[in-house]
Amino acid sequence: MVYGCGNSVIKFLVFALNLLICLGGAVILGVSLWANLDKNFSSNIGEFIEKTKLPSDYADLGKYQASLWVLVGVGALLFLVGFLGCCGAACENTLLLTLFFIIVLILAVIELGAAIFAVTNKDDFYNKIDNVLEKGYEQDKTQFVIIQDAFTCCGTPKHPEGYNCTTTQQEAQ
């Protein structure tokens, strides 16, 4: 049981934070499910992109299908974690709070592992990204113009032919 003003404030803050997480997860889950399942969503995005004069390549949702399903999973997980936290805090239910803590702990360990993996494999990651950028640049140079103009750089450490670089990669950062 929670007693006293300080404990009530903490209980309210835990509830409010988890409510925001739950609502955010519900929004992500709903929008990503809508984008995946609605047949007209892609054409509506295409019309919006035409009105805003963005490159038409952004309208093809087929390229992003796997990412949308990942967002469904992330939204569902956020909703579940937020729901467990809200109910556990509001009802002061030990089981729900324990499940909430275990899930958050597992996610923190996964994030820590991903961070360690990213730091230890940084050079390999940069090399693979450079290869992808170089191959993509060779196939379709127009896709890189937006990035190159936005960051005033060439996008890769090796300056590709056909683009006049005014700054080096180090200066652009």
From TrEMBL:
<dbReference type="Pfam" id="PF00335">
    <property type="entry name" value="Tetraspanin"/>
</dbReference>
<keyword id="KW-0812">Transmembrane</keyword>
<keyword id="KW-0472">Membrane</keyword>
<protein>
    <submittedName>
        <fullName>Tetraspanin</fullName>
    </submittedName>
</protein>
<keyword id="KW-1133">Transmembrane helix</keyword>
<dbReference type="InterPro" id="IPR018503">
    <property type="entry name" value="Tetraspanin_CS"/>
</dbReference>
<feature type="transmembrane region" description="Helical">
    <location>
        <begin position="12"/>
        <end position="35"/>
    </location>
</feature>
<dbReference type="GO" id="GO:0005886">
    <property type="term" value="C:plasma membrane"/>
</dbReference>
<feature type="transmembrane region" description="Helical">
    <location>
        <begin position="66"/>
        <end position="87"/>
    </location>
</feature>
<comment type="similarity">
    <text>Belongs to the tetraspanin (TM4SF) family.</text>
</comment>
<feature type="transmembrane region" description="Helical">
    <location>
        <begin position="94"/>
        <end position="119"/>
    </location>
</feature>
<dbReference type="InterPro" id="IPR018499">
    <property type="entry name" value="Tetraspanin/Peripherin"/>
</dbReference>
